[in-house]
Amino acid sequence: MKDYNTLTVPEATLLQQEMRNKVITAPFNGKIALIGGADISFNKFSTTVYAGIVLLRFPSLEPVGYSLVRKEVTFPYVPGFLAFREVPALLDAWQQLPQKPDVLVVDGHGIAHPRRMGIASHFGVQTGQVTVGSAKKKLYGIYEEPGEKQGAHTPLVDRQGVVMGTVLRSKQKVKPIFVSPGHLIDVPGSLALIEQCIRKYRLPEPTRLAHNAVNQFRLGTLPEGYSPA
DNA sequence: GCGACAG
DNA sequence: ATCTTGTCGC
């Protein structure tokens, strides 16, 4: 694969434009026995990133194991180009997994992106895996605030009204989360999947546990490599 | 020119 | 994203 650290934003834009045609947004009909959660952590002003993918049983969501890796990254954070900062490290964590999950939930957007190439779609196309994006804030699009009741949701559309994802009130009294297909799944399917991953918190368990893991890894509480839960 | 802007 | 103290509401 190409070295993202040497790319310029214009070059990254071209890569996204080439990859957008490879994203498949179709119904996912497979069975899910294992689900994964991916996230990154880092110290501000440092080029070292701590990436991790957590494996959990589905639908029980019991953690199975953690794949943690550290990597140097110099590509800057630029809204719309998050994948060029995080995907390389996540690929390392992915390859280190003893078994691959049936679906991977990535912290960030999927097709709810100006060029339909958010990090979840980018990772999905690169690996050929089913991915879903779950973000805490909007990057691109228009939406109506969903109702206050848990489970209330509204469509996230682009300027032409095309649906890119869903704004979901995952829990009562919390800000909504943004769910969108990454690859090999559609909008209704990605929403249904994330709804099944909500337990006691605002964020779905896969990404919430991944976030906890990479933070513990960065702070030295968890070791690099793969560890069973 | 101005506002928006994943992690 | 990370840092950081107190504060507010269920």
From TrEMBL:
Catalyses which reaction(s): Endonucleolytic cleavage at apurinic or apyrimidinic sites to products with a 5'-phosphate
Annotated compartments: Cytoplasm
Binding site for Mg(2+): D39, D107
InterPro entries listed in its UniProt record: Endonuclease-V
MF terms (GO), sorted A to Z: deoxyribonuclease V activity
Sites annotated Interaction with target DNA: Y77
Coiled-coil residue spans: none
Cofactor dependence: Mg(2+)
Keywords associated with the record: Cytoplasm, DNA damage, DNA repair, Endonuclease, Hydrolase, Magnesium, Metal-binding, Nuclease
Documented EC number(s): 3.1.21.7
Domain of life: Bacteria
Pfam families: Endonuclease_5
CDD domains: Endonuclease_V
Family: Belongs to the endonuclease V family.
UniProt xrefs under NCBIfam families: PRK11617.1
Biological function: DNA repair enzyme involved in the repair of deaminated bases. Selectively cleaves double-stranded DNA at the second phosphodiester bond 3' to a deoxyinosine leaving behind the intact lesion on the nicked DNA.
HAMAP family (UniProt xref): Endonuclease_5 (MF_00801)
Protein name per the record: Endonuclease V
Source species: Chitinophaga qingshengii
Gene name as annotated: nfi
